[in-house]
Q: What sequence folds into this?
């Protein structure tokens, strides 16, 4: 074969690869990193499922899922370019967006419910009764810590409790060992790790604190955790906050659009991973105020006429 024919053949092969790449979305070289959350939490379980779905949907290497301390940690990582996509609670997103307008949302996903957890035999029945007690308030730089600080302040308990920073698994272990009297957790329903120990745990109703909490932010709502969620004797009133999938504005619009499409195409798998994902849908997905939608995400919603 002459050099000319060989060169022509290589050029044709290269052109064919470009065509095939375009037909398959052109994402083959994309390497994604997802900031999830505590092991055993809802973020982590959904992130693992989403990584598998995106791998198949975009025909890319499986995205790397990073276990983190939660929302505050995740925002720092996405802003620093250490991750591409992050699970972030709306109150944290609202707070950080003010100084970081490069943040954008792909979608609103499931809601987090604030859990104030004590031992089943505890005499603590209200937030006010946490005064003078030992409390685990979540991992440092977590959304749990962020919201726990707000609740303790609203209840007039700042400086009146002994605080310790512990992740979910460590908080449960410390409570069962008697090293703390209560712990805070913010997560979807059910949170598998809490469900595992539900017969030894009880949730505290925070209805009396909700007027103060709702006055702090429009993203806070009032909700009920049904008794059946964790085999409790009665439902409890608590605070609910939405979660967003967060990226940087600089993310390629085609990639952002494909990620949103992959998210909603994977609703069934996500719901199988955790029933908290049953609320993931296109129509509430667009509601990410006060965080703006990424232009690629907005393009997807407009195409869906949302």
A:
């Amino acid at each position: 074969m002459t050099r000319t024919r060989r060169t022509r053949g290589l050029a044709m092969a290269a052109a064919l690869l470009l065509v095939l790449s375009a037909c398959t979305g052109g994402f083959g070289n994309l390497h994604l990193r997802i900031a999830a959350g505590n092991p055993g939490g809802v973020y982590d379980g959904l992130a693992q499922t989403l990584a598998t779905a995106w791998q198949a949907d975009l025909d890319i290497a499986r995205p790397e899922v990073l276990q983190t301390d939660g929302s505050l940690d995740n925002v720092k990582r996405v802003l620093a370019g250490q991750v591409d996509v992050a699970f972030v609670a709306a109150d944290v997103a609202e707070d950080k967006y003010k100084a970081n307008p490069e943040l954008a949302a792909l979608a609103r996903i499931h809601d987090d419910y604030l859990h104030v957890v004590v031992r089943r035999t505890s005499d603590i029945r209200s937030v006010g009764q946490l005064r003078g007690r030992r409390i685990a308030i979540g991992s440092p730089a977590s959304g749990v810590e962020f919201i726990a600080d707000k609740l303790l302040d609203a209840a007039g308990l700042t400086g009146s409790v002994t605080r310790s920073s512990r992740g979910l698994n460590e908080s449960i272990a410390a409570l069962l060992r008697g090293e703390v009297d209560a712990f805070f957790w913010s997560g979807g329903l059910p949170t598998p790790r809490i469900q595992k120990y539900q017969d030894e745990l009880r949730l505290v109703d925070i209805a009396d604190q909700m007027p103060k909490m709702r006055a702090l932010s429009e993203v806070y709502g009032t909700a009920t955790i049904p008794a059946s969620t964790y085999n409790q004797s009665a439902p409890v009133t608590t605070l609910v906050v939405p979660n967003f999938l967060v990226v940087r504005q600089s993310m390629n619009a085609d990639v952002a659009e494909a990620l949103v499409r992959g998210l909603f195409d994977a609703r069934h798998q996500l719901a199988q991973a955790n029933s908290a994902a049953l609320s993931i849908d296109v129509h509430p997905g667009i509601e990410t105020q006060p965080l703006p939608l990424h232009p690629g995400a907005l393009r997807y919603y407009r195409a869906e006429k949302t």
About this structure: Residues 1-24 have pLDDT under 50 and may be disordered.
